[in-house]
Write a structure and sequence with these properties.
Blueprint (H helix, E strand, L loop, with lengths): L3 H11 L16 E7 L5 E4 L4 E3 L4 H4 L3 E4 L2 E4 L4 E5 L16 E2 L13 E4 L4 E4 L4 E5 L5 E10 L7 E10 L1
Antiparallel strand pairs: 1-12, 2-3, 2-4, 4-5, 6-7, 6-10, 8-9, 10-11, 11-12
């Protein structure tokens, strides 16, 4: 006679079945975008596709977030927020509340949002520990961190975003 209790226990240990009510979380791969140019145009980005969206295609292709100079705007039906003193690499779930829509989602201005402006050298620097969360119109959550505001490093052209993001 087959001992179903033993088989179920072994399957459970090997991960082939999960007990009822077990919360499963699978972390998504971190993707890096380099030098997204937002200097002389609004740069639209689609998280799911991992690509920039041409302005002419925004209605049919869809976008989640846009960049222009130091401003970051979430798509109309999406929501966003910034969390301070966070470790991007250690975050595995999005905050449950605190999201805002549109231009109010990601605050603008030195020290108000994701960056500081140094008046001595006129440099924009991402604030360490500032993680941006986006709740897309499609209902997905993403985390995002700005690594650089300059093309290929601090001496390059401004408004060329390098950032990392991941689905949650």
């Amino acid at each position: 006679m087959i001992n179903l209790k033993k088989i179920s226990y072994r399957l459970l240990l090997t991960g082939l079945i999960m007990p009822i009510g077990y919360a499963f979380s699978q972390s998504s791969a971190i993707k890096k975008i380099q030098n997204l140019n937002a200097a002389d145009k609004m740069a639209y980005f689609n998280f799911e596709k991992g690509t920039e969206v041409n302005e002419a295609d925004t209605a049919k292709t869809g976008w989640d977030i846009s960049f222009q100079h130091t401003g970051i705007i979430v798509q109309g039906a999406a929501e966003g927020q910034i969390v301070s003193d966070a470790s991007f690499d250690k975050i595995d779930k999005a905050p449950a509340s605190g999201y805002k829509k549109g231009k109010q989602a990601i605050p603008w201005g030195s020290g108000n949002g994701w960056y500081t402006y140094n008046m001595d050298n006129h440099q924009i620097s991402p604030i360490p520990g500032k993680v941006i969360f986006i709740h897309t119109a499609a209902g997905k959550f993403y985390k995002l961190i700005i690594d650089s505001y300059y093309k290929d490093g601090p001496d390059g052209a401004s408004a060329n975003y390098t950032f990392r993001y991941s689905a949650l």
